[in-house]
What does this fold into?
Amino acid sequence: MSLFWQELGKIWRPGVVAGTVLLGLIYYYMFPGFYIEYFSNGPSAREEYDLSLEWTARYGPTLEPEERAELDSRLAEEIAIFDRQLEELPEAAASGLTDYKSFCAALQQEERDTQMIWALQSRTNFDTISTIQQMLERYDDPRDYLRQHDYFESYTVKEQEQMLAVEDWPKSLLSGSVMDSTNFYLKYLAQWTAISVILLLSPTLVRDRLRRTRPLQWSSRRGRRVLHTQLAAGLVSALLLSVVNVTAYAIPFLAQGPLALKNCPLGNSVWPTGTPWFNWTYGQYLAILTGMILALGPGIGAVTLFLSRFSDNYVSMLLKAFPLFVSMGGFFATWAVNHAFFFHAAWDGADFFVSKGAEAICIAVLLIVGAALTGWSCLRQRTLEC
It folds into this structure.
């Protein structure tokens, strides 16, 4: 056990840890930090999120028909508030805008003072009214367009069946803006997890070769089997670093309050959220994606340790690490989490969607490959001992 802790100490060197933390802070500031600062980006998105929180607290995770009827009076109340707000704005009266009806008529005119209209919108509850109206229209739509429009026929039979099945689910109150922020934020978390694991583990086994510790290790039976301990320490470090990354990213994310929607179903929402393959709640979805990101760490760590094991120096390792950065950090990690388990194109411009559950299968394959490479390394080491 003491040897295991020594190997952990060799991996978690202060200089390597400090460099990884510094790069992590820079990465967070450049990419995922935006989706915390602007968790609901724009007035409409913020109104949608606020209404989703309010109605979830009042009606529960879904909106039943009898509950939807109450929202007509809520819309009328918001319009009455808008009328009162408009009366208090001199520029509105000067333009002949006295109520919501006249304001909407002005919006339809080709020749209008756009700057003045935008100023009035920002000083009234117009965004709230628009958001409620769009939601009610979406709720009342019988969704027959799925069968009527040509684009429905472009999907496979299995995809069409899933789209129709989702339309029969209860109407969810899950906010579309929350799903957008969740998708981008977790995508960047997965990418950083892959990058940080590669940074931490790349020099692990190369260092022993450069410092000529291999001959010393081979001078004893226990030393000849140190590779098993080193690989175990590396895989534990990859998992530990993944847990640290998830925890660090979870704190600011959960501070925005999305768990208030944890019981809302993913599909058939009153807000646009996409078409999911599985009938999960938002809370279950977060838990599953978190598990996938945690699995990425050991999987990518095993591949990194394998490449480090067969590198003679740091230059050789860097030449191997660079394509690993691109393939795992730049492509695979983000692809596996981006719109995971929802209908989405396999890549930008692709004419077909990712198959049901393909993201989880790919991560499982990564774990199997990592386990195979680790097992082969140990088997090869045992062969050399004979």
About this structure: Residues 107 and 118 are 10 Å apart (CA to CA). DSSP finds 21 helices and no strands in the chain.
